[in-house]
Design goal:
The protein has about 150 residues and is mainly α. It is built from six helices and four strands.
């Protein structure tokens, strides 16, 4: 049973939504990341602060990086994250990401939308920002554009 993909797990109706029946099938990294952004502190991660979470997500979970940036914007955490970036490494990662997106070379950052319905249910704030392709959700902070 461990070899099943999420699409193969039994599903249950939750209102008008179709969600996995087993909580062990839930995407822990995604949920921990989005709840961390929402609450402004690490949730489910063994990190001291949000900057450590941000660096981890960019390095190890590129498939949820865009959602993380969108969540930071939606929950107004961008400024405090940038303020805590004393070395400038986070700004450099954002610049690399932005350049990759603008040049069409951001395949590694392509979001995994397997859990889009779950995200819409748990984080409706993320769907209210508008279309990321239209540029909605981006902000310029101290010369660095951030957002999905």
């Amino acid at each position: 049973m461990a070899n099943k993909t999420l699409k193969e797990w039994p599903r249950r109706r939750c209102g008008d939504r179709d969600v996995p029946e087993y909580s062990s099938a839930l995407p822990r990294a995604l949920l921990d990341t989005l709840y961390s952004a929402k609450l402004g502190r690490p949730v489910g991660w063994n990190y001291k602060n949000m900057l450590e979470v941000a660096h981890h997500v960019e390095a190890s979970h590129k498939e949820i990086f865009q959602l993380f940036l969108r969540a930071l914007t939606a929950f107004r955490r961008t400024d405090e994250l940038l303020a805590s970036d004393r070395t400038g490494k986070w700004r450099k990662k954002l610049a690399v990401y932005r350049q990759a997106r603008e040049s069409g070379l951001a395949e590694a950052y392509k979001p995994d939308m397997t859990h889009a319905t779950l995200i819409k249910v748990l984080f409706p704030e993320l769907t209210k920002q508008g279309n990321a392709r239209s540029g909605v959700g981006y902000r310029r902070v101290q010369g660095t554009r951030v957002g999905p």
